[in-house]
Structure formats: C-alpha cells, structure tokens
Specification:
The complex is a heterodimer of chains A (292) and B (321). By secondary structure, chain A is an all-alpha fold. Chain A has helices spanning 2-32, 39-56, 61-82, 92-114, 139-161, 163-173, 175-180, 185-207, 217-232, 237-257, 261-279; strands spanning 129-132, 135-138. Chain A is globular and about 60 Å long. Chain B has one domain: ABC transporter involved in vitamin B12 uptake, BtuC (Orthogonal Bundle), CATH 1.10.3470. Chain B has 15 helices and 2 strands. The chains are: A mainly alpha (292), B mainly alpha (321). Chains A and B meet through helix 4, helix 9 and helix 11 of A and helix 5, helix 12 and helix 14 of B.
C-alpha cells in the first residue's frame, strides 16, 4: 500500500514537469501547424543556462529561470524569422527536415562548446525531502511541480485573458479568418514560437536540479514529449496535460513494479506512442489527424 | 541511350570488382560509400511516397542484430545471415506502415523517431538475448574477409540502384508520386495508399536492414548505441537530400558527396560532434537554398542552358542575310 502511495505521489510530481515539457510542443503545432523537432534543444539550452548561472554566478535555477526563458524566447523568435518562416508554405517534408536539421545543429554546437560531460546543479533543496511515515517526498520535485504548475496557469491566463493570447488562439483556430480579423498572423507565429521555446527552456531550467544536463538530453525528452502530445491529441492543451500525467503514471508504475523497471521506463513512451497510434490516433482530446 | 547503359553496367561491375585490386585501406571507404548508398536509396524510396523517416537507424539496427544473432546462435554464415536481416527489416517496416497507415505524414516521422529509440531500450534491457549495453562480438570463425564484405556491399548497392531504377519504370512510381502530392486525390484515382505504403516501406526497410546486416560482418562488434545510432538516421537523410531528393541519381551522388564531406571534416577537425554539426548545417542549407539537391540543381541548370543554346545560333543566322 505504501509503495502504491509512493508511486502515485512520484507520478503526480513527474507529471507536472512532463506537462511543462510537452505543452510548448503541442501549442506550437496548434498555432503554426509545424512540429518543432528542435524543441528538445530548447529544453537543453534552458538547462545549460540554469547550470551556468548557478556555477558562474551562484544564482539559483529558479531565479535564473525567467532570464533564461526570455533569452531563449528571443533567440528562437529570431530563428523563426530567419529560417523557419521560409518553409511555412513548403511541403511538410521540408518542414520536418529543416526543424530536425536545426535541432542537430543546436545539439552539436552545445556538444562542441560544453563537451558531452554530464553535469548537474546542486541546490540546497535537491537532496532533502518531506518524510511522512514511510512516504518520501523530495523537496526538489515538489518545487519543480509547483513551478511547472505556476507557469502552466500563467500560460492559460495569457491565452484566455490577454489580447495577444486570444489572437494566438484565433490563429490556431483558423489562420485565414484571423487574418481577416486584422491579426498579423506572421507576427503571432513568431510570438508563439518564442513562447513555446520559453516554456521548453523553463522545463530545462527546472530539470537542471532534477536530472543530469548533457547536450543530448533534448533528444530523449523530445521522444517523451511526442508520446505525450500524441496521447493527449496534437494541438490540445488540456489533452497534453492529461497525456503528461498518463505517461508519468505509466513510467513510474513500470519503474516500481517491473523487474529492472527503471531501465524499461525509458521505453514506456515508445510503447504508449505505438498503442495510441493503433487504438486512438487522434489522442484523448485530439482533433483532426486524417491525411491532408 | 544504349551506350549510356553499357557505361553504367561497366561502372557497376568495376565497383563490385574494385575491392579485388584496391589496397585494403580502400575497403573501408567502399564499404561506407556502398552502405550509405543503400541507406540513401532506401530512404529516398520512402520519401518518394511522402514518408519522411526520422529513424532509419531502427531498420539498420534490426538488420545488424538479426545477422549477428543468427550467426552466433545458429551458426549461419555471412550470406545466409543477410536473409533474416532483410526479412526483419521488411516486416517491421510493414508493421509501421500499417500502424501509421491512415494518418498524416507527420505521424510516420514521429513513429520512426520513437521506434529507433524504443528498439535501443529493448536491446539494452534484454542482455541475455542481445548482449545488452556491454555489446557482443560476432563469431570470429564465421567472418569473411573484409574484401568479400566490401564486394558484397558494392553488389548490394548496385542491386538497390537497379531496383530503384526498375521501380521508376513501373506504374508504382507514379502512384507513389501521386500519393506524395495529394493522397486524397490519389485515392480517388483508384490508388490504395495503404497497400502502396506497405509495399514501398517493406522494400525500404529491407534495404536499410540489409545495409546494417552487411556492416556488422565488417565491424564485428555491436551494442545498442552502435546499432541504433542517430548518426545512421542522419546520414540516411542527408545523402538523398544533398544529392537530390525524389530522383534516381540523387542518393548515389549524395552518398559520395556525404562521405567525401565527412572525410574532409574528419581530416580537418577530427571531432565527432563537428561532423554532426556539419551534417546539420548541410541539412538546413539544402532545405532552404538547394531543395532539389546537387542533381536537381544541375538538371535545372543544364536544361536552362539547353534551352538557351539552340536559340543563339538561329538568332545569328537571322541576322546574317
């Protein structure tokens, strides 16, 4: 019983991080109809930003998070303006390959600049935990969960109550109609790409004190984010959150109850992805997936 | 036309026989160019049907493991081991085609990316079967000479090129092109996209697995990180894009160009990460500035030249009388 409770608590805390990790990917697809294969690299840069802020300046990852997110958002918006905007109307083959290529470049720039060494940030709260009887709740994971929740709520408020956020949703709904309503669609694309990258980098900044930071961490997180987004339904924000918790539960359950589980847990995202594609390709709350 | 075929045939035979006369150092190069050619042709076949594989290393790794396992467990020799390698590639590719059958192309890309990652995890987690993360050596007693492996690689590359050429002559090719451009319209014309996808992907998967299966006999050692290496995935897409996507000659030109580039960066910088960076830059550059690749760009350029040259003499003729 206590094992089950521990499993549940761990899954919920992990689900918060996963939601934040995948939400930018999902929202980005909803708005621009492009899948950002470089999303993992935004996470990776966020993690390195937090790492260097902590090592060089002694700043806590939670304090450097907003600065890192703004920097990554600005850089990504420039990247979008400079390269990605050119393929918006190109065949999807070109879009997929361009984003994949950009991810490859960013990953290896990081590998050359900062070597492939695994790093991590040690914070005062990284190794402590709340203890309730046999239940162990690490402070770091609680802080990560709360931060992720705050950011997601902020995103929701932005999407629903701000002029720009409403415009973003309008563009996601119907780009042509949005143009007719006087919305500058290409500017909205750029803003939403920047915000999605910021969400990714925020995930990275939090991961810096939970996981190890390497130039290649983004790729593994990207595969998980895909499983979440497909499970929840491409482009659906509530679906993404559901998908994130579902994957977190599945992974945590496997690592607790299956022999050698922590190794197998890495493969759960793949199994989830395959099952969703077979059983319900539009995901839990998804919209269109048909050929077009 | 006839003379061109004779030249191609002679070139192909020369390529297959090259390992017999070339210095042993060349074997490595022949093997790399040949394997990449097979991978590139395989990737391009899928791309011709509008399917972008972001995980060709999945097929490569499956082929490598299949060849290695039948050799080590059942004592199958080099040539026999290539048959299960191709089969497993074809079967897994057909399975992916069925699973992503009715979905948009993007789902295929995601599924392939996840497939290679999932297979890597499986290979790591089943050490009693695959040797696990520590890796495993192929039975040394069964290993053919590197010369033989290089010759077989060249022969397979030629074979794949012939298959690609043969497909380009059949209605299959046009069906694929129609699917790539507009699947709904293709369906209305009586093309069953699912059937074509299964056929084209099985062939593509079998080719990529064959390349993996041949390579394990050359390298002799396999672990999950080598088998399902992202490098293979990237090379498989760089070569056709650089050479010329959706063309016959593109993957072949691209294989030479890519290996040439990787040799240059290796000699000049020598860092692993740097060659990947160069590949990424090539990918971005090709998509943005040269989407037709080397062959496609050359084709448009020569056509434009051909169009302008006949008009030039006639213009001078008109001026003289």
């Amino acid at each position: 019983m206590s094992l089950l409770l521990q499993c549940l608590v761990d899954a919920i805390l992990l689900g918060g991080l996963y939601s934040l990790m995948a939400i930018g990917l999902s929202l980005g697809f909803g708005v621009t109809r492009i899948i950002n294969f470089a999303h993992g690299e935004m996470i990776m840069f966020g993690a390195y930003g937090a790492y260097f802020a902590s090592i060089l300046l002694g700043v806590d990852p939670l304090l450097s998070l907003p600065v890192v997110a703004v920097l990554v958002a600005a850089a990504s918006a420039l990247l979008f303006k400079g390269l990605i905007e050119k393929v918006l109307d190109a065949p999807h083959i070109n879009q997929i390959l361009l984003l994949f290529g950009i991810g490859l470049v960013l990953q290896n720039v990081a590998a050359i600049l900062w070597t492939g060494d695994a790093r991590s940030v040690s914070t005062p709260y990284a190794l402590t935990a709340f203890e309730f009887d046999t239940l162990l709740v690490p402070h770091g994971r609680v802080i990560a969960f709360v931060t992720a929740a705050i950011l997601i709520v902020a995103l929701f408020c932005w999407l629903h109550f701000s002029e720009l956020g409403r415009a973003t949703r309008a563009v996601a709904e119907n780009g042509q109609a949005a143009t007719l309503m006087g919305i500058n669609v290409s500017r909205m694309y750029m803003i939403s790409f920047g915000i999605n990258a910021a969400l990714g980098s925020a995930t990275g900044a939090i991961s810096a004190f939970l996981l190890t930071v390497t130039p290649f961490m983004g790729f593994h997180m990207l595969v998980k984010a895909f499983a979440i987004v497909v499970l929840g339904g491409l482009g659906s924000v509530p679906g993404t959150i559901l998908g994130a918790f579902a994957l977190a539960f599945a992974e945590t359950w496997v690592s607790y109850y299956v022999p050698d589980g922590s190794g197998w847990a890495e493969g759960v995202s793949f199994v989830v992805l395959l099952c969703v594609l077979i059983i319900r390709p539009k995901g839990i709350l998804g919209q269109a997936v048909a050929v077009h | 036309m006839q003379a061109r075929f004779v030249i191609y045939a002679l070139l192909a035979i020369a390529a297959i026989l090259l390992p017999l006369v070339a210095p042993p150092v060349m074997n490595n190069l022949i093997l790399r160019v040949g394997s990449l050619m097979i991978l590139a042709i395989s990737w391009n076949l899928a791309a011709n049907a509008g399917l972008i594989s972001l995980g060709h290393s999945a097929f490569w790794g499956l082929g490598s493991y299949a060849a290695l396992l039948v050799a080590n467990r059942l004592g199958w020799p080099f040539f026999a081991s290539l048959i299960p390698a191709m089969l497993i590639g074809a079967i897994s590719a057909a399975a992916i085609a069925v699973i992503t059958g009715r979905l948009r192309g993007i789902f295929f890309a995601i599924a392939m990316l996840a497939l290679s990652e999932g297979l890597r995890v499986i290979a790591v987690m089943t050490p009693e079967f695959t040797g696990g993360g520590a890796g495993v050596f192929i039975d040394q007693a069964l290993r053919p000479s590197t010369q033989t492996v290089a010759m077989v690689t060249a022969a397979c590359a030629v074979g794949c090129a012939i298959i690609a050429y043969w497909i380009s002559l059949t209605p299959f090719h046009y069906a694929c092109r129609a699917m790539r451009n507009n699947e709904n319209a293709a369906e209305m014309l009586g093309i069953n996209p699912l059937r074509f996808r299964i056929a084209v992907l099985s062939l593509s998967g079998a080719m990529a697995s064959l390349a993996g299966g041949v390579n394990i006999w050359y390298s002799g050692f396999l672990d999950p990180a080598i088998g399902f290496d992202l490098h293979v995935t990237i090379l498989a897409q760089i070569a056709p894009i650089l050479g010329g996507i959706h063309t016959l000659a593109g993957p072949i030109i691209g294989a030479f160009a890519t290996i040439g580039l990787s040799e240059v960066t290796r000699v000049m910088v020598g860092e692993q990460g740097f060659s990947l960076l160069v590949y990424g830059v090539i990918l971005v550059f090709s998509i943005l500035c040269m989407p037709k690749g080397i062959y496609g760009t050359w084709l448009t350029w020569s056509q434009r030249k051909r169009q302008t040259t006949p008009t030039a003499p006639s213009a001078t003729k008109a001026a003289t009388p």
